[in-house]
UniProtKB/TrEMBL annotation:
<dbReference type="InterPro" id="IPR043741">
    <property type="entry name" value="DUF5686"/>
</dbReference>
<keyword id="KW-0732">Signal</keyword>
<protein>
    <recommendedName>
        <fullName>Carboxypeptidase-like regulatory domain-containing protein</fullName>
    </recommendedName>
</protein>
<dbReference type="InterPro" id="IPR008969">
    <property type="entry name" value="CarboxyPept-like_regulatory"/>
</dbReference>
<dbReference type="Pfam" id="PF18939">
    <property type="entry name" value="DUF5686"/>
</dbReference>
<dbReference type="Pfam" id="PF13715">
    <property type="entry name" value="CarbopepD_reg_2"/>
</dbReference>
<feature type="signal peptide">
    <location>
        <begin position="1"/>
        <end position="31"/>
    </location>
</feature>
């Protein structure tokens, strides 16, 4: 699978999102009143955090943040709002329905509660779980979790409406009035300074989705039938709209309060009602809403350690025997180890079912991003409404069969008033304007020039309509065989054809004075882009280029300039002529197969040589030729992609990925010199450990049947660059080990700052701990041992005659590392220790390796 240039450097934030960060009507019948304000102590004037702000009649509410601020949308039929806080008098305010307004409230201490104060020390009583009524209540919530989940019903069906909006936030007047924005003033919007995002915002994205979702318990099945999808459309030359939607949906996932861990921004935060929540959270009963039916208890919760990846907020729990969460308000402490997040607020509201249990009826998630707390940033909101809810009623016949998701038919006609009729709430004036303003923005030439520049700098490609040139990080590189190397290439886009795609490059080495080149032609059999799931295409290609043995990439070798810097002796290269024919077919259940034919001619270059013994005389071989048929099977259940215009990459999730490949060499066919069979199997999975982060685990094994020279064995993936490579052995030398049978284990553990977050001073740096272990067992059978069979290619030796290439013995190759990640929010440094085979020549026992990665 092709990787985008950003991924080759370890980027997890796509380039178009960085582009956006760097660029810095009357309401309907169901309109809402937007209330904002600050709650303070009437005497001290201090801002009060986690004050309950609610409309009891509507059973909706929120809490103030750490800065005492709140924002709440109230249905137009209500005109009063209550502010409650433990130890303070409750305040009820009235407001004018349908008009956005400020409500700055001062709460006075409750004299009845504070009649006598006895000072007994500088610290309050120590928090304990034992005999704590709040903990007893949360344990009841945990005990009743399964019955309150939708999966407790035999059937569930509902309509789901999603709306996402994004804006540049907290823009200063000075920024807004810059000359470059002279033609863009119509885009900027003024809002109350208390609102998330500050005074000046620049709305730039809106997306709406409507779907019907079905669930069946036995046999378990889930089905999503998309009914509509609408989003702003950016110029496809610069930004891939489908990829933009995919990434935003990854950032703003559904929050399942009943799950043990809540997926958020690619991380896992422990739910306040997880099975082990009382170990990591402190709980307090802060209020009782007696006027609500059924009666609710307000539970406030906080992380025991402020730096842990945990929520803070309030839960409203029913006292009707179900102990269900009727509402949840979630936020995060600014000190937790999340990158670029200035503030986060989530609100979940639950509605009653006929059986008196509750289902999620509406959720809101708002996140304010920025490089600093005070600077400009990026603010996004996602609102999800659940309507037409039915439980324990089977869906239509056959609805549970087939693929889990049925996409909306892009050719289907939608009535002009489709969205007006199907939105649960009307769009605000600003939201309606986004569709129109983005279209206008893209007609401004200065904006197009700016976007063109940033797209090239961050993606590495310059588009010329049907063809784009790049990637830029391969234009220049160097190595000991080619010396100074220049390369230029590119690929066609869907503008040329949606069925036929071409890719090419030419390169020249000034030391070996040889031209290298590549050309491929791909035909999409399903009429879709070859990068769109599910793939179904046939590709023919030819490549003449250099390669390090054991470092083969799937189609085109990317010459990243940063990887030109290598340690030790690294002049053992191959000149390859590769003819390939590949057929790839993916299915909607994420099973795929690939059939391939490859004719490969390998010639040694630099310090590499092919030498055997014929009779009693040494013989140097100039070319090794093979003809190979292959089949690859891959299954990646529930895999999701970040989809670009001309590339795609998987989004790592909790589900395993299995791959099996069988290659068969055919002697005598188109010049093939050997018969062999090469079987390889791979399984990889990410394991989540809640507060302890996650581990990426890969198991791999291979077997080569037949007598072949060492270039046709499994030459294990070594790394002599200074970058930390996740799937290579970072202290193994190129060509150091080869096997005809092997098994390997890779474990890469990311603790997400679990230990650093508890260290004074260190925790402010938001560093993250990493550790890894790599084991490789393998060997060579007697039939492939060049010592026993001198007619095979001999293992390499240095100028002094000392061997530099080996077979593994009974002892495995092993290396381990510990590291610090998230340095300046983008660097990972690992100290790597080689544990075995330390007596081999030119090996490094220790090494410092780095890796760039931008992520949340």
């Amino acid at each position: 699978m092709k990787r985008s240039p950003s991924q080759l450097c370890g980027l997890a934030v796509p380039y178009w999102l960085l582009v956006l960060l760097l660029l810095g009507a009357p309401a309907g019948a169901r309109a809402q009143t937007v209330l904002r304000g600050v709650v303070t102590d009437a005497k001290t004037k201090e801002k009060l955090p986690f004050v309950s702000v609610s409309v009891p009649q509507a059973a909706i509410g929120t809490t103030t943040g750490e800065d005492g601020r709140f924002v709440l949308q109230v249905p137009a039929q209500y005109t009063s709002i209550a502010f409650t806080y433990l130890g303070y008098r409750t305040v009820v305010k009235t407001f004018v329905a349908g008009q956005a307004q400020d409500l700055n409230v001062q709460l006075a201490p409750n004299a009845a509660l504070l009649g006598e104060v006895v000072v007994t020390g500088s610290k309050g009583p120590r928090y304990k779980n034992k005999d704590n009524p709040a903990v007893a209540l949360i344990r009841q919530v945990i005990e009743h979790k399964e019955q309150n989940r939708p999966e407790s019903y035999n059937y569930v069906e509902y309509e789901k409406y999603e709306k996402m909006t994004f804006s540049f936030s907290n823009l200063s007047d000075k920024f807004k009035d810059r000359k470059v924005f002279r033609n863009y003033q119509f885009l900027f919007k003024k809002q109350d300074s208390l609102a998330a995002g500050g005074v000046n915002i620049l709305p730039i994205y809106i997306e709406e989705k409507l779907a019907r979702e079905y669930y069946r318990k036995d046999p378990e099945a889930r089905k999503t039938i998309e009914l509509g999808n609408k989003q702003v459309e950016f110029d496809k030359h610069f930004i891939d709209n489908e990829g933009l939607s995919t990434y935003f949906n990854r950032m703003y996932q559904d929050i399942d309060i009943y799950a043990n861990n809540v997926a958020l921004l690619g991380n896992q935060l422990l739910s306040p009602i997880a099975n082990n929540a009382p170990t990591f959270y402190q709980f307090y009963i802060s209020d009782t809403l007696r006027q609500h039916v059924p009666q609710l208890v307000e539970l406030s919760f906080f992380p025991r350690n402020k730096g842990d990846m945990l929520f803070a907020g309030k839960l409203y729990v029913t006292l009707d025997g179900n102990y269900a969460v009727q509402q949840a308000n979630l936020s995060v402490d600014k000190r937790i180890n999340l990158n670029f997040v200035k503030s986060l607020n989530a609100n979940l509201q639950f509605a009653e079912n006929p059986d008196k249990r509750y289902h999620l009826s509406k959720s809101f998630l708002g996140i304010d991003f920025g490089l600093s707390d005070k600077g400009s940033g990026f603010y996004g909101e996602r609102t999800v409404s659940f309507d037409k809810y039915r439980v324990d009623q089977p869906g239509p016949a056959g609805v549970y069969e087939g693929p889990a998701r049925v996409p909306v038919d892009s050719l289907a006609q939608r009535a002009p008033n489709f969205w007006q009729l199907n939105r649960p709430d009307s769009l605000t004036q600003n939201e309606r304007a986004i569709y129109r303003n983005v279209d206008t923005l893209q007609t401004i030439k200065s904006f197009q020039r700016t976007l063109t520049l940033f797209t090239f700098l961050l993606s590495g490609y310059k588009s010329f309509g049907p063809f784009e040139v790049g990637p830029s990080n391969t234009f220049y590189s160097f190595n000991p065989v080619e010396g100074f190397r220049l390369r230029v290439g590119g690929r066609t886009t869907p503008e040329l054809s949606k069925r036929i795609y071409f890719e090419t490059y030419s390169a020249y080495g000034f030391k070996d004075e040889k031209w290298k080149y590549f050309l491929s032609s791909t035909y999409a059999l399903n009429g879709k882009s070859i990068y769109t799931f599910p793939q179904n295409f046939i590709r023919a290609s030819f490549q003449r280029d250099t390669r390090i043995p054991g470092q083969e990439l799937e189609f085109v070798q990317e010459d990243n300039f940063l990887l030109s810097f290598k340690r030790g002796i690294n002049d053992r290269y191959l000149y390859n002529d590769v003819y390939r024919l590949d057929y790839i077919h993916e299915f909607s259940n994420h099973f795929s197969y690939a059939l391939g034919f490859r004719k490969l001619q390998q010639s040694p270059a630099g310090g590499l040589y092919f030498r055997n013994v014929v009779g009693d005389r040494p013989n140097f071989v100039t070319t090794l030729s093979t003809s190979e048929l292959s089949v690859l099977l891959r299954w990646a259940p529930k895999e999701k992609f970040y989809q670009g215009k001309l590339y795609r990459s998987p989004i790592i999730g909790p589900y395993p990925i299995f791959t099996v490949r069988l290659g068969t060499g055919i002697k005598g066919f188109l010049g093939g010199e050997y018969n062999y069979r090469n079987l390889a199997a791979n399984a990889t999975k990410r394991f989540y450990f809640s507060q302890l982060g996650h581990a990426d685990v890969t198991l791999e094994g291979g077997y080569v049947a037949g007598q072949v020279p060492f270039p046709l064995l499994d030459v294990h993936r070594a790394n002599q660059t200074y970058s930390y490579q996740l799937n290579s052995y970072n202290l193994m030398n190129f060509l150091e080990f080869s096997s005809d049978h092997y098994a390997s284990l890779f474990i890469d553990q990311n603790f997400n700052g679990f230990f650093f977050n508890k260290l004074p001073l260190i925790k402010a740096l938001k560093l993250r701990e990493t550790a890894s272990l790599k084991l490789l067992y393998g060997g060579i059978r007697a039939e492939n041992d060049p010592v026993l069979h001198p007619e095979l290619y001999q293992f390499l030796r240095d100028a002094q005659g000392q061997p530099t290439a080996f077979a593994l013995g009974r002892m495995p190759y092993a290396e381990a590392s510990v590291g610090i990640a998230n340095i300046f929010k983008l660097i990972r440094l690992d100290i790597v220790k080689r544990l075995t085979y330390l007596n081999n020549p030119n090996v490094s026992e220790w090494g410092l390796r780095g890796r760039f990665k931008v992520d949340f």
